[in-house]
Amino acid sequence: MRASQDELIRGGTARRGGRRRVFAAAVLAAAMALTGCTSGDGGDKSSSWQGGGESGPKAAATITEPAADAKDVPASTALSFTTKDAEETTVELKDSAGKAVEGQLAKDGKSWLPDGALDYGETYTATVTATGDDGKPATATSTFTTMAKPGKQIRVTSFLGDNQVVGVAMPLIVKFGRAIPEDYRDDLQRRMTVTAKPVQEGIWHWVSPTEVHYRPKVYWKANSTVSYKVQAGGLPLGDGWYGRSDLTVDIKIGPSFVMTVENRTKRMTVTKDGKVIKTILVSLGKKTTPSSSGTMVVIEKLRHTVFDTMEELGPEEGYRTEIDYAQRLTWGGEFIHAAPWSEGVQGRTNVSHGCVNVSMKDGNWLFANTRMGDPITVKGTERKLQNGNGWTDWNMSWDEYVKGSAVPYEPPAEPGDDTSPAADEPSVEPTP
Description:
The protein contains 4 helices and 29 strands. By secondary structure, the chain is mainly beta. The strands form 7 sheets. The chain has a 6-stranded mixed sheet, with no helix packed on it. It has a 5-stranded mixed sheet with strand order 1-14-17-19-12, with no helix packed on it. A 4-stranded antiparallel sheet has the order 2-9-8-5, with no helix packed on it.
């Protein structure tokens, strides 16, 4: 990871019961000191000490997984270990050529996860060193061999790419090339970390067996940076399938640009970084084709396109119209777009087929100022937005959203803990 522990967004670490699987580490601290608090004396066969006649070390260490000389170990494996009477614990993993593997200690101090998937068919040696208050180190070692590259691998992709600048309501979207069985999702989700600067609370939400989203509790803080990592490479994902590779993406959040539309007044209010900067007359969907009320997100922007509903609605109701400054809000076809034909009634009457109609001038202005991930909330229409019809992550309350996580939600630490946001950090727009 590239950030310190106090930048880690926590998404819950409790482990569900069920069948035994390869240990999935809890959310990892990015640069946490390798220390552990343990008790007890020696006696472990894998611990060793040479002291020239002096008494042995007070501390002891045992590597519990992978077992010594284990074969066919998944490339995603974490190291699990126990220590006794240790004031300091260090972990080292080297390949057969003696090259060290970078990794991080889990918060509980009982496991260590490599920063990336291990090589297939490679032999590794793990060493855990525990030092007690007597200053004498006790070591445990375990040599194991990873499995051959599996033939059944699941592709992991991100909707966003490195260095993209997105709006404050942009969900992080990760997709899988095959459905992930429900009882494997918690293992996978524990390998999915999100780091933001400044710190922001959030959680993953499974939209479907092949897609998972992440959103913060409130809109992203304007101009913050976000990095997310999926350590799926070599991870067992059910029915003999394994993750194909790890994935890391770095993005930036742009200014806060929020649109709110009131059906009662037929007006859109635009705020930027909390200040109203423009009011725009609109025409929404007429009674037979009402616009959806709810919070949506700009999905894509089309400078010029053609709306064609002839096949869907037939020659009597259908239409084929050239459109400028179109911004998609739903998969069902609701857009913000310029509609010069309705400029005479904008601000007074709803005449659209469900879209947010604005003038050519305002459509041009909006198109120039919005970005993918900017939110728009429509209020007071005859129809409610259906979850799943677009990126509707913000159309759910936080309590509803948390229910979509495969890992039980763990609230952030109390103020004063170094993993919690600073008390004097500025607030952002609340979840609508």
